[in-house]
Write a structure and sequence with these properties.
40% of the residues lie in helices and 31% in strands.
Length: 121
Amino acid sequence: MRMKVPRIEIKATNVELSEQLQHQVRQRLSPLTRVFRSEDMAVVVQIRKAQTEFGGAIHFVSLRLTINGETTTAVAAKPYLSRALGVAVDTLRRSISRGASVSPLQATNFAALKESYTLTL
């Protein structure tokens, strides 16, 4: 049986997509890619940097893992890119072990929270 190499697509906004950054992303994803190496796997990594109103920067990382047609997602936002990437990978790993990217309970709680903080005039 021949092992398939996972497809990893990296997109960046307001961040230079250097060879070093690509290597860092692939290195952080390597534990996940080793586990599912014999499966049909694709990973899309989106990295975005935004300036805050207080003068600092925040990095947003979005991971979308597709294995045999099933998609799991994870997102993270941290001041440092390496930390955001680590949190997103860890969240994705835990989501896979639970079997769902977002539980219905989490989605319900988020909807209630969003509604409670929405102001109507």
